[in-house]
Amino acid sequence: MLAGCSRFNRATQSMAGALTMYKPEVVQGNFISSEQVQALRPGMTRVQVRDTLGTPLTTSIFHADRWDYVFTMKRVRVEPQKYRLTVFFKGDELDHYEGDEMPSETEFVNRISPKRTPKVPHLEATEEQLARFAPAEGAAAPADAETEAPASAASSYPPLESAAP
Predict the structure, then answer these.
(1) φ/ψ of residue 130, rounded to 5
(2) pTM score > 0.85 for this model?
(3) Model confidence over 107-157: pLDDT tens digits?
(4) Residue 86, domain extent
(5) Residue ranges of region Disordered (predicted)?
(6) How many folded domains does the chain comprise?
(7) Residue 73 within a domain
(8) Under a CB-based contact definition with an 8 Å cutoff, are residues 49 and 87 in contact?
(9) Between vectors from CA 47 to CA 63 and to CA 99, what angle results, nearest 5°?
(10) Nearest C-alpha neighbor of 104 from the set 150, 40, 37, 155
């Protein structure tokens, strides 16, 4: 009886190991690339900054001259990523910004996408394969489509303008 219990226990543990809890990916905030940060210039208006970076994640009535952009991403088997950028204004113009070093768009895509090596097809044709598409020597060239098209078009469609009486 004890042997049966230990066998049941091992089977239950292996089944529990095969079944894992679903953990969804959590993406929050605005992704800001290093290219977007490089486009920021002191003196830009709030509208220009919003056009460059997007709508800020948080604004505060207590800090009207400050916009915060935060981006976090939690994925299974990947270290959590968190980036922060704070933009400061004087009146309606950008004064300065501070925050984390942002990745470029390419670096960010490489971090979130699984590494895949694309399969490139073999793109080489033999002379025999190419000969099938070349016209045979001495064969008549195809009729010029431009000279033939107006005649057939004129006979199948009514005139665009009617003659005035």
Answers:
(1) -70, -35
(2) no
(3) 887 776 666 666 767 778 788 887 887 766 655 555 554 445 555 555 566
(4) 21-111
(5) 130-165
(6) 1
(7) yes
(8) yes
(9) 50
(10) 37
Tell me if residue 100 falls in helix, strand or coil.
coil
Joined tokens for residue 48: 């220009």
Which helix (DSSP H) or strand (DSSP E) does residue 79 occupy?
strand 78-90
Domain containing 29 — which CATH number?
3.30.1450
Question: Looking up tokens 């942002």, which residue turns up?
Answer: 102
- How far is Cα 47 from Cα 41, in angstroms, rounded to an integer? 13
In a domain, 25, yes or no: yes
Residue 14 has a pLDDT of: 62
CA dihedral (40, 45, 47, 49) in degrees, to 10, reads: 20
The tens digit of pLDDT for each residue in 27-84 reads 788 888 999 999 999 999 999 999 999 988 877 788 889 999 998 888 777 788 899 9
Residue labelled with tokens 């300065």: 96
Q: Are 19 and 64 in contact (CB under 8 A)?
A: no
Q: What are phi and psi of 13, to 5 degrees?
A: -65, -40
Query: Cα separation of 165 and 161, whole Å?
Result: 12
Strands 93-99 and 66-75: unpaired
Indicate whether 53 belongs to any domain: yes
Neighbours of 40 (CB within 10 A): 17
Residue 26 forms part of a structural domain = yes
Hey, what are 34's tokens?
Answer: 């290093």
